[in-house]
Backbone:
């Protein structure tokens, strides 16, 4: 009995010591819920090379600066990321994280992956966080860039960087042909007339060697003529209608100018083509040393908006890299705060002009005189850069739907346009036939 009582007293004494220790620990824990020396960790998913597919030696510079700012402002929280994942492998890597339940708290998101993950519930709905956060100002973003992260009228991602598609112009050929650079509000007919005038055999060997345009496709024509090709969910295609017919006829007219000889991107690089649609990121990359000596170096070139169709405007597409938060994150508020540093902090967004080839998604950053000077210094093109053209191109860009299977659906539209142009039947009849076929394809994609 005495022995048993001793054991009980020992147990009670030990329990008392543990309670005292627990009380001391509870007292030592700060309001944030972390013990001294312990830290929350949020993980970030990124790729190591440039989104814009040009050489870039600053893979993690912007991210690491964002981490430094965030950790200074959020003591007790650290940010970690996995390095070495290439962009070409990133979608597969992210899919593996989804399957294994190890999705990063915050991650970059390619546009072709956005709708699928939003639909599957992988992405946190940011709408309420954005509405309840007084620091988050939606109108600071370019509206078209912000729309790129919306799914069914809800915000599932924020834009990180973007680049509009503009028309790049070989000024040297225009000078030789005594033609000026078109005005910003130029239209299809002006575009056509310039292409017709410059397309010719310059050396008399019987082969056309100077061209009006390369790379102008139905996508540019549809965007600039007010065509809405798919509904937001990718359940229906709208290939019929006058706007589509007008755009296809215009593509057909442009092709007839060359008399069967088709220009290539190499022809533009060699200085033999006047116009080529191109992302602004490529302009930045290849206007800067040392890449400027490798491509497009034998002539003067500039950029202007796309020509407007009769039923549209000087509008083109916008390529946007998104950033999202995992729906399964255990650190909801911290992940949101880091997402804001990446996308809303003007210091970080300004670094895109130093260490990337894209454009900031914030109006005030892209339109700042400091960044214009930076662009001019990088490209040595004070006479070719118009900040308003760039800003307007981003703001007014056509925002295409981003549904699962979009690229495959666009491939079907490309087949349709080529078949309609080469067919002996009328364009309007071809539109009806192919619209039916594409809608069958979309039905099959949903099964």
Residues:
């Amino acid at each position: 009995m005495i022995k048993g009582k001793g054991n009980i007293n020992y147990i009670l004494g030990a329990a008392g010591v543990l309670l005292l220790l627990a009380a001391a620990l509870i007292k030592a824990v700060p309001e944030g819920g972390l013990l001294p020396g312990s830290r929350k960790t949020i993980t970030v998913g990124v790729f190591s090379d440039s989104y814009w597919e040009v050489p870039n030696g600053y893979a993690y510079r912007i991210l690491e600066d964002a981490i430094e700012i965030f950790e200074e402002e959020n003591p007790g929280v650290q940010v970690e990321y996995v390095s070495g994942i290439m962009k070409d492998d990133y979608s597969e890597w992210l899919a593996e994280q989804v399957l294994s339940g190890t999705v990063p708290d915050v991650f970059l998101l390619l546009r072709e992956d956005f709708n699928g993950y939003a639909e599957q519930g992988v992405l946190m709905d940011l709408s309420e966080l954005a509405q309840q956060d007084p620091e988050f100002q939606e109108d600071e973003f370019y509206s078209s860039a912000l729309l790129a992260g919306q799914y069914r009228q809800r915000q599932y991602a924020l834009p990180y960087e973007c680049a509009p598609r503009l028309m790049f112009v070989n000024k040297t050929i225009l000078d030789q042909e005594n033609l000026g650079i078109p005005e910003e509000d130029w239209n299809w007919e002006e575009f056509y007339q310039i292409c017709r005038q410059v397309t010719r055999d310059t050396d008399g060997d019987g082969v056309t060697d100077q061209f009006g345009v390369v790379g102008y496709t139905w996508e540019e024509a549809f965007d600039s003529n007010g065509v809405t090709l798919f509904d937001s969910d990718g359940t229906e295609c709208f290939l019929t209608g006058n706007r589509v017919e007008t755009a296809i006829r215009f593509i057909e007219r442009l092709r007839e100018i060359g008399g069967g000889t088709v220009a290539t991107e190499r022809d533009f690089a060699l200085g033999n083509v006047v116009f080529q649609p191109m992302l602004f990121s490529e302009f930045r990359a290849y206007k800067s040393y040392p890449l400027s000596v490798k491509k497009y170096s034998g002539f003067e070139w500039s950029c202007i908006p796309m020509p407007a169709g009769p039923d549209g405007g000087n509008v083109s597409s916008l390529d946007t890299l998104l950033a999202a938060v995992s729906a399964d994150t255990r650190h909801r508020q911290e992940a949101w705060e880091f997402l804001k540093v990446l996308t809303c902090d003007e210091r970080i967004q300004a670094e895109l002009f130093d260490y990337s080839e894209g454009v900031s998604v914030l109006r005030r950053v892209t339109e700042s005189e400091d960044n214009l000077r930076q662009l001019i210094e990088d490209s040595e093109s004070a006479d070719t850069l118009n900040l308003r053209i760039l800003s307007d191109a981003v703001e007014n860009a056509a925002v295409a739907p981003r549904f699962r299977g979009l690229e495959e659906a666009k491939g079907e539209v490309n087949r349709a346009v080529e078949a309609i142009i080469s067919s002996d039947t009328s364009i309007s009849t071809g539109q009806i036939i192919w619209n039916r076929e594409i809608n069958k394809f979309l039905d099959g994609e949903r099964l």
About this structure: The radius of gyration is 28 Å. The first helix runs from residue 2 to 28. The chain has a mean pLDDT of 87.
